Amino acid sequence: MNGKDSQTSSNNDLAAALAQFNSGVTTSRQLDKEAKAIAKAERRRDAAAQNLKELMEQETSPEDKAVAEEEYRTAADEWTRLTNPDAITAEPSEEPPVEASETEISASEEPTENASAAEEAEDQEPA
User: How high is the pLDDT of residue 75?
Assistant: First the structure.
């Protein structure tokens, strides 16, 4: 009987070790997947910021600038959601988006570093 008990104990230990290993592999894959999603969101945010910066430096239509601003906001929100899942995202206000865009355009025309300043502000949020 001791032989069977020893073998059963050994099998249980092996099964527990295998389950722990599989759990670690699953966790590792999930972390890799999250890291890739964050990197992709960061590239998208940076590209949108660069596009917005270029449009602000050029004489383009307010509609094009508004589209670029919305793309940047969307990309920045996605990056923030991925890097800080506990952050509460505010619901969009009931105000017309045109007013907000006009305000942001006039405020951002001064320095050409507005996109990088916005990125720095986001980077400083607690993770």
Answer: 95
